[in-house]
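Case study 2.
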Amino acid sequence: MRFDNAYLTTSSCSPTRCSIITGRYPHNTGAPELHVRLPESQVRFPELLRKAGYYTVLSGKNHMFGHKDRAFDRITGGGGPGKEKDWVDHVKDRPKDKPFFFWFAASDAHRGWGISDDAPKYEPKDIVIPPYMVDTEETRKDLTGYYHEVSRFDHFIGLVIAELKKQGILENTMIVVAADNGRPFPRCKSRMYDSGIKTPWVVYYPDVIKKPSVTQRLVSVIDLSATCLELAGVKRPAFVQGRSFLPILKDTKAQVREVVFAEHNWHVYKNHERMVRFGNFLYIRNNFPDQPNLCYESDDHYPAGAELWKAHAAGKTTRNQFQVFANPCPPEELFEVSDDPHQLTNLANAREYAKNLKQARALLADWTKQTGDSIPANPTPHRHDPPRIEDGKIIPQGKAGKRNPHAEMPGASNNAMKVNHPGPLKL
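Prediction:
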């Protein structure tokens, strides 16, 4: 079953993984910013599976905790350019008398690109350029590397499936394929638009999903925890803010939640954005609008980003490509997603959408209060000065020194790590 409306809780890699593994919003985990370890006090749902008799493995990207953790029998680095090399071996070497939970976390597709023989190589002429990027040869080449790594990830999933089938257990295994952040391109990774916060989400489980299907129902990545626990016969603890999407697997029209929420916190640059998706609308509030809303995307390690900056410095960007450079940024944005899939037309100031804007504000206010979110009075500062354009020239970002210490975390002033309320689920 393919979920066309699955959302991350943040489009930043390690905070997303900490959110998924606890079933909690980033500001409730104590690790809402990039490169912050998950506190020991936060329960990981695989540890509950392990206590219930499951054999558990984490292979590949981690950045949540160290090489040993109470949630997993084994933690390995994966190996190979995409950290997928030992996945099949884990399936082969598992104890055959135990149910299992494998968290296979590829570094595909993550910069820098590593081309291998495990996936096809794509031609720049075949690439589709989104309207918020500039169409140049360098941008097209950059996207071919991304496509290649996505395909390599798919290749290794196929090898795992083949091994499960060989062992005769494929039909009794649930497989979930997803990403933990948007692709590392301008206006994608770390952002609150669908290009950053929406995730591919495909579930295979023939015991429940009787035929290939597609659902439009909303789901959040924090719902994975509750789903796995329910399937394993483990009662969902109060600290899990997610809700099981098992009803949707049985019926594509079943509804578990009518709203999803997401957040954007420090990711190299200071930020505090919040998002709510409801019905046909997506609303974003930017609580630090007096700065450009950037990811780490402007230097030569990010060719598509560098191309966009060059075009803007030369005065050649279109209205759709300008948003990355907005300074200040709009404090509020409202989009009708079916008519505006790339979220390029802000309706927040349109009189005919005043009722929808009011509803979005109320939903976000309820979620903020119920989950203990807060705007830090002393937020983590930029790691270095962001790039800028002066007199048609790009002034590159300042040199990054030592990783600056994290300051006040969102939610800290409300002791959000101990708040378990799931926030609004219905309209």
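The chain has eleven helices and 13 strands.
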